[in-house]
Design goal:
- It is a single chain.
- By secondary structure, the protein is of the alpha+beta class.
- The protein contains 4 helices and 4 strands.
- It folds into 2 domains: 5-96, Alpha-Beta Plaits (2-Layer Sandwich); 98-132, no CATH class.
- Strands 2-3-1-4 form a 4-stranded antiparallel β-sheet.
- The relative contact order is 0.21.
Length: 132
């Protein structure tokens, strides 16, 4: 019997597409994961960002992370479907090991994602402190 493990799928969808098409692509990826036997636990949509380098001649991508649990053989089936989706510029599925999760907790204490609501709140607080 296969035990379910925790995985994370990081997606880059073509950022030049309309919002409805991006939402449909996200729904498709989530549907594929659940149809193949995965259980989605968390979806984080980061939004449109400039890519570090052109991917398929595109420089803007819509970034998202999906955490899910699934059996190991299911991952190959999910990748088989995602490989042929035209809206996806890149995807990567990794297993979230306990060591990786522990490292993320330690890093999370001391860092803030650039462009996140927390980042803008910190910048506003710093600006207010300087103004006083």
């Amino acid at each position: 019997m296969e035990t379910n493990k925790l995985y994370e799928c990081t997606l880059i969808i073509d950022g030049g597409l309309q919002d409805e098409v991006i939402a449909a692509a996200m729904a498709l990826v989530q549907r594929v994961i659940t149809e193949k036997g995965g259980i989605i636990s968390n979806v984080l949509e980061i939004g449109r960002r400039k890519t570090a380098y052109p991917i398929k001649k595109k420089t803007i991508g819509y970034y998202a992370h999906i955490e899910f649990t699934a059996a190991a053989p299911v991952i190959a089936e999910i990748e088989k479907v995602l490989r042929y989706e035209e809206e996806l510029l890149r995807y990567l599925i990794i297993q979230l090991t306990s060591a990786l999760l522990e490292m993320r907790k330690r890093v999370e204490k001391y860092s803030v994602v650039i462009g996140s609501p927390e980042d803008s709140a910190l910048a506003e607080a710093a600006a207010a402190a300087v103004a006083k």
